[in-house]
Write the structure tokens for this entry.
Amino acid sequence: MKIKEFIGNKAFYRMTLSIAVPMMVQNFITNFVSLLDNLMVGALGTEDMSGVSIVNQLFFVFNLALFGAVSGAGIFTSQFHGKNDVDGIRFTIRYKTIVAVLLTVVAILVFIFFGDFLIGLYLHDTDQSSNLELTADVARKYLNIITIGLLPFAVSNIFASTLRETGQTVIPMVTGFVAVFVNCILNYILIFGKLGFPALGASGAATATVIARYVECLVLILYVIKKKKEFPFFKGAFKSLYIPKDLFKNVTVKGMPLLLNEFLWSAGMSILSMSYSLHGIAVVAGYSISSTVVNLLSIIFQALGSSISIIIGKLLGAGKFDEAVSTVKKIFAFTLFSSVLVGASIFLFSSPILKLYNTSEESKMYAEFFMKTVALFTPVAAFAHASYFTLRSGGKTLVTFLFDSVYLLGCAVPVTFALYYIFDLSIFVIFPIVQSFDLIKDTIGYILIKKKVWVNNIVDN
């Protein structure tokens, strides 16, 4: 093995960063506003922060299920783009639309009829240090409002994902910037009651988010209409739901495991969060703070990992297999290098960042512990992240299903509950054990990547 195999030239890094940087910027803006949102809601109290955090866990499941739905078809979009097949891209847009709308309808019905039950799963009578009724009330009101924004969020994902998969990463970044700017300004106005508006608290944060999602959706649609000559695949995409039978079957076979994987993985992560809530509301608040800060600082290696599906998908669609293998090695090395820097940053800045929060000292203590633990395992998580997107780029969605969600639900979740209910261990022992599970995923990922099971052209099959 030669070191040179893992180091690219200037053209490689220019190409990779041209894809990854817009996603980094968009994710940075989004997560920075999430941090500000977290700080503003946190100023209202631990119960408010915990209530919002609980709903965000529920929305997280819908978000990733939607991501899986559009990404399943997106594998084909990237490879059709590599072939310059406009009709193929148009059919994948229709497929995304059908699945995204169905998912949104189901999510709205679930949140309306089972919202109270789902919120209650995160609240436990054993926690006497916080007002559980207040937390439930905040969560219920927040969920009722946030549900109104599910449809524009789904539509934005259809447009933005297609643009990214065809190499247009700047446009979603700009529209994302507009949305988070609106969200940030409205958060301040509606949460605290500025400029003559009433102080709505956590409900104000939800209202600001919904308005921002409608703005993002509208800006994306208007831009695509204005630049329709540059995006011929959108022309006529919504005039019909027709998709060739063979393509529909192929996308379903390859894409549904990805949708199911994202749904089950996000559900598994929410169940993990639920298991952490057994240790008290302060742990829920601390975990919310930790997740927000970690997501903000992890945008570099996450964007590099995500760019694999775009870069490698295009190469595989064009039949450039050797170049795809060589490129994967370089992106992996780049991703791991950046993850070390990210981990060090999280570890060093965790304490100073917590000084910005106006919440309980107990919540801050848990948050710092979570952040420093995650920091130590950042390279491990980065390798698993890159492995997932590499396998997915070649259409190995069943493998990623087993690699990701089945592993989480079959291993991490049962062990986490067993450590609490059977061994009565504290969160300070359980959390590091959960983080270490990715070491096993890394081993499996390394074997699969080395065997080149992902080197496939799926649009010619």
Remarks:
- The two ends are 33 Å apart (CA to CA).
- The chain is about 80% helix and 0% strand.
- Residues 3-450 form one domain.
- The chain has a mean pLDDT of 86.
